[in-house]
């Protein structure tokens, strides 16, 4: 290429790929041009790929060169202004085209010559491309800012989603917040924006810290919740921060108590009572009173004797308020101790039974029989006695337990220096020559009695005899067989059997030969299949399988779509594997189904030589996690006969541990084997609990049920990873123990059956009076349920399909909304017995009473009646609205039957009836019309002689005054009572009686005339 590249262009071959296809072959040559100027951003310009076609008789092929030009843009310039790079490219492409026409680019492929003389290119299709992490803005590549990431598919900068952040520019991904943390919004720029998720049992508006614990009567099982579920009606929790719906318990009724005041509840014991509900103690009867039955709820049940009685009580009593003695709840309330045993309260909600003589056991339910321990040795017979036992010994033994062998040689029965050998109720004398007999009392006469044994020849001596022994024997009388095994001729652990003049070796397994000197080659018969390599072992062989095979002979094809069924509690059924590497973090995940209520089943155990409980999960009735000899009780029961997903993790750092069941964090803690390491080179047993390294199995701890997808990882899996194990069918295989490898390690009669995992869940059905929405039934898909108006849902509204082929909950029910009984109406009743949604009831009153409130009530979809329950009140008379001038003798508006009310009028008004009082009758009506006071009016004023009222009108109010005026030539007479010339309207509706008088004007006497 250097021959076709100019000074400003650096050419190289990059990403060269050869693909043989039916129609086309593709090869790429990348030509790079480097600008030596310092630049701000790099922009790649891609002209159209240069193509050249050729003709072959029967097949079309194509060779494609992709020409990549790398240029740069200055701070003030842009990509379109940089023309020198395209010019240089055109020059290079022109040269390349000339070389093609000369045949210099022809290629030999598959024995044929590919000619490229028709090489063409098109510069009009050039494009500009920015490096990943940046986008083109005004022909300049700009890095994606902090808080965003470059989406490699749509080629845009996108905000970091919730739970992630990005503190730097120009990145293709966002960083995930640490485990159990998230952000409250998108576009987070720093890890400081990651806040801790609200733990189960707490909530906040954002689901992040700061969080508030769930109040009493509510719970929350999930992380990052923004609300708490309310316990169902009649249930509550005993503390704040409850994490499970199971924490909602019914309140203990009166006469009962419990550790928390909630179910399960126990009746108050004898001689005590409890009048309140939800209590943690009962009240002892005062003054030695007694109650002969449990569960009393009233002090009135206490019976007080005439004389002092000693109360029998198994409970600790503390002084309460007043004279009350309070009995705190304890397990002794259930009277667990049998056969007269006394119950004592212990710490942590436990109890101890003090058993009477002759009984033992946790509840004094075991009859004590000391003979069961077989204390009498050497065949002695045990006789049980009150509080003990007696041994009847066989002949030859004595002692309390027949443990002493009576020494029959103590009396020295052997004579003539014979050696006495004690036996069982006997003795034997080894006599010195020449004596014989039971007690060595008889002398031997030389060789006459043929004392030489085993073919020995007797030779007389002057004082006795001498035996000449044959080969293989020795001793005074040839009584000793020479032991050819003394030289240990048998090799490799073989056992030697001495024979006359010979020996016989019984070889251990794997060896043969006269002296067990030859090891048997178990690989000689080529037992390994499917290309496996055979390794000869002692009395065994090991097949090293190639990928995809397992089994003793590598005859099995590995798969993970199976389950192991442990049918009976036998110690012979299990799977055994090994773990080579040590672990400081670990997660075990598995699916389990069992209905075993008898055994403390063990899903798996891992043991090393000095620790049988290096990593063990046992007791599916009350799950226990053990790490390096320490244990924590998870406290969950898995024996309901349905599939459950269990995941347990542990970390040496701070000893942190977590337990998930069906995706819910059931429990967690710390300080479990802190700083320790789970050693390697141990045995991992599925279905048995190891009390010793690789053994010590117990039927009571054997797993009974089905298990599948057991995988062990050497890391702590996050909550989201564990969720994927439940809902995703991707092949998750543990890197320490993988489920596909377990099937190759089965021992005994464990049934390996195909599993239904990773199959579709059943098609969901809509609940009655409700509906269902779903698009798929594959594992991980979600089904949404809804209820019709007037119906409420019991159960989960959303279910997800698990990999086990079942949903993570039961299909909910739509229960018609029930408003409940409106309540009893005093002096009335409710007509109607159906109190559910849309139904109506009618309130009726007894005779003499009437409804106050709404008579007809309708149950609404909210579960409440549309109106409050009305009252039935005694029928009364109602005082009507009165005129402002009418004054009743009482201010009450409703008057009971038999009561009278008197009415009076204010000044200026008068009654319009002949009566001024009324009486209320039984039917709620008055006996007469209610009086009313109307205002008094005066008619026009009366006329007078020689005068008239001034501006007279039709009527006047009380107190009004009217003036008179006299006719011309008249004036008011001042000698009469009314000198004012006016009249006032009196309260009686009459005018003043004294009218003004107009008389003629009288002139004085005329003046005298002078």
From TrEMBL:
Domain Ig-like: 880-984
Residue ranges occupied by any Pentraxin (PTX) domain in the UniProt entry: 560-758
Cited SUPFAM superfamilies: Complement control module/SCR domain (SSF57535), Concanavalin A-like lectins/glucanases (SSF49899), EGF/Laminin (SSF57196), Growth factor receptor domain (SSF57184)
Disulfide bridge partners, by residue number: 355-364, 393-402, 431-440, 469-478, 507-516, 545-554, 787-814, 845-872, 877-920
PROSITE patterns: ASX_HYDROXYL, EGF_1, EGF_2, EGF_3, EGF_CA, IG_LIKE, PTX_2, SUSHI
Broad class of the protein's primary localization: membrane
Pfam annotation, one family: Ephrin_rec_like
Compartments, record wording: Membrane
PANTHER family assigned to the protein according to its UniProt record, in alphabetical order: CYTOCHROME C OXIDASE POLYPEPTIDE VIC-2 (PTHR12916), UNINFLATABLE, ISOFORM C (PTHR12916:SF4)
Full protein name: Sushi, von Willebrand factor type A, EGF and pentraxin domain containing 1
Source organism per UniProt: Lymnaea stagnalis (Great pond snail)
